[in-house]
């Protein structure tokens, strides 16, 4: 595939030629005529910038897809044991096993099963992070673990979490936690969940329920198995070869190393040294570290890594796109920042107009 003319791209994206031309200038491309071919990479970038679904105009088709681990988020009502459950699961993770329990915090961890399969857990529980990411278009989570305390039952945030998962079309696996407590009543929780519209497996539905105790570390293996079964049903696959598309799940500023982003690759392979655009920021990958802090050259699908070399601090949910050159990365970033600023001003003005309207 050699490329396509601007007219064709306009047709496919539904955008005007002028606005596409504007973006082309932003990414450092010059076209003399709307009939001149532009390279497929540039066409992809432009399509991406207008939010059109023309991404991977070429490579996804016919690309070799491989099974990938599920990415799991834990949600549930406050104090029902999300953090405790994540801690308990983390102790069953590769890092905990190999490094004797010493894990640095990177926002995600991987649990490897004896079968060779693995599960990636996002470390930020709660639906705030989940909806923040989703609001930014980041479909990072494949499965939600809904934690419900066996002694407390379904509570407002349990229902919120259910609603979020449903809106995102993400399947739920229920973990009834605190089953060690004498006051635990998992049957009651099941009935509550059913009456809230969750079709549990025991009742002929497709939502698995596992009884656990985060404190006593009971049922964790069952939960992990349930997640793998769910993942298998979903037949999660990703392209491994070719340029990566990834999401930021967490970002922080390190005094010595600068901005650090924990990212999860959705497809393709991220390679150290590549130029990237991260949300409205840009940079060149100076180092990739795995969740044990070990430097690695590559990152494939569903593997959580920490990326060093971004020039500004990105936000959770920002997408990471690999581009050809520093120049292009910089220009895309400038273009995005400009657009963000325009949107901000527009929102500000609209707010002002509304206020002045009520004044009169
Ligand atoms: P979060 O707000 O959902 O993150 O809940 P936490 O993980 O902070 O747990 C809230 C409280 O419940 C803490 O005091 C935990 O020690 C306790 N807790 C969590 N899991 C269990 C469990 O399986 N059994 C018992 N008995 N207590 C638990
Ligand atoms: Mg917590």
TrEMBL record:
Identify the domain of life.
Eukaryota
Of the GO CC terms on this record, one is: cytoplasm
Q: Where is the Tr-type G domain?
A: 67-237
Which residues span the membrane? Answer: none
Name any Gene Ontology BP term.
Answer: translational initiation
Q: Which cell locations does it reside in?
A: Mitochondrion
The alphabetized UniProt keywords are: GTP-binding, Initiation factor, Mitochondrion, Nucleotide-binding, Protein biosynthesis, Transit peptide
Which GO molecular function terms does the record list? Answer: GTP binding; GTPase activity; translation initiation factor activity
Name the family: Belongs to the TRAFAC class translation factor GTPase superfamily. Classic translation factor GTPase family. IF-2 subfamily.
* Known role: One of the essential components for the initiation of protein synthesis. Protects formylmethionyl-tRNA from spontaneous hydrolysis and promotes its binding to the 30S ribosomal subunits. Also involved in the hydrolysis of GTP during the formation of the 70S ribosomal complex.
The name on file for this protein is: Translation initiation factor IF-2, mitochondrial
- Species of provenance: Amborella trichopoda
Query: Fragment boundaries within the full protein?
Result: 67 to 426 of 653
């Amino acid at each position: 595939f050699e490329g396509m003319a601007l007219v064709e791209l306009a047709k496919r994206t539904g955008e005007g030629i002028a606005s596409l031309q504007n973006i082309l200038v932003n990414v450092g491309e010059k076209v003399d005529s709307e009939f001149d071919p532009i390279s497929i990479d540039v066409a992809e970038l432009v399509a991406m910038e207008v939010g059109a679904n023309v991404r991977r105009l070429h490579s996804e088709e016919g690309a070799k897809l491989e099974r990938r681990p599920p990415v799991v988020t834990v949600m549930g009502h406050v104090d029902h044991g999300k953090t405790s459950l994540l801690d308990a699961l983390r102790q069953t993770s590769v890092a905990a096993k190999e490094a004797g329990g010493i894990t640095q915090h990177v926002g995600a961890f991987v649990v490897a099963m004896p079968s060779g399969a693995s599960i990636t857990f996002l470390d930020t529980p709660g639906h705030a992070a989940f909806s923040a990411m989703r609001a930014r278009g980041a479909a990072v989570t494949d499965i939600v673990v809904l934690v419900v305390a066996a002694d407390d039952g379904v509570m407002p945030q349990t229902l919120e979490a259910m609603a979020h998962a449903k809106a995102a079309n993400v399947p739920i696996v229920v973990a009834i936690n605190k089953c060690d407590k004498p006051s635990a009543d998992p049957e009651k929780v099941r009935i509550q969940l059913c009456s809230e519209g969750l079709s549990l497996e025991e009742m002929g539905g497709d939502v698995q329920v596992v009884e656990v105790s985060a404190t006593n570390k009971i049922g964790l293996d069952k939960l992990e198995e349930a997640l793998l079964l769910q993942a298998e049903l979903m037949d999660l696959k990703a392209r491994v070869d070719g340029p990566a598309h990834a999401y930021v799940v967490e970002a922080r500023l390190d005094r010595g190393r600068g901005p650090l982003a924990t990212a999860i690759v959705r497809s393709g392979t991220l390679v150290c040294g590549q130029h990237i655009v991260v949300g409205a920021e840009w940079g060149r990958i100076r180092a990739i570290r795995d969740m044990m802090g070990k430097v690695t050259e590559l990152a494939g699908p569903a593997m959580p890594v920490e990326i060093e070399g971004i020039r500004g601090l990105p936000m959770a949910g920002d997408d990471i796109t690999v581009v050809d050159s520093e120049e292009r990365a910089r220009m895309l970033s400038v273009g995005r920042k400009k657009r963000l600023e325009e949107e901000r001003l527009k929102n500000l003005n609209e707010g002002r107009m509304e206020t002045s309207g009520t004044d009169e």
